[in-house]
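WARN no homologs supplied; continuing
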Amino acid sequence: MIKKSVSHSIHASIDGLLNLVFPEYCGACNKSLSKGEKVICISCRFKLPKTNYHLVADNTLVRLFWGKTKVNAATSYYHFGKGEKVQNLIHNLKYHQRTDIGQLIGELLAFQIMSTDLFSGIDIVIPVPLHESRLRQRGFNQCDSIADGLSKELGVPSGSGLLRRIAATTTQTKKQRHERHLNMEGVFQSKDVICLQGKHVLLVDDVITTGATLVACAEEILKSKGAQVSICAIACA
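OK structure emitted
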């Protein structure tokens, strides 16, 4: 018992020292995290704009895909605004390799999904893939960490690698809505069509704007007989 107590004290002291030398920062506001806070500070957890789309069947995101592809349900955890803290959250995940952000929000999304019948029967989680050239450049796929958090809490496998990005596309940022959809045609390929037959797939992205990327992914998945697609993301614009 004494050994355990001493060991715990030593670990606590080491953690405290490491936090002084390498302080942890909130992924949204970049302020130092207080003791007991993880990834996102308490203030940001309460103040960041949540969508609660998981509670609404025909929400704004679901309607975004009407007439483009068949989607069972769709949600994002936050609303996205340029220059706001949610954008900073995404930026830290993508460009500072804060995979802890993706993991946490994946878990939070899973808790929302499990609280509603709209996403019932999810069989597998598939992150939107990066082209191999972008993957080499960035070193990781930010959507993998979100999928890992979802997979862990939902108790279903993460199918990273089941969907491939076979064509590198130019940036979508300055393209008009219709140009974005044209830019994504034929970009994705299912690695195992049979594996996805009859499966309810949860597609995962970081930010949803026009939905062009997710439409292209969903259309490829739906080539598998009996497959269904639902969608979730950290944020939507």
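Residues 1-22 have pLDDT under 50 and may be disordered.
OK
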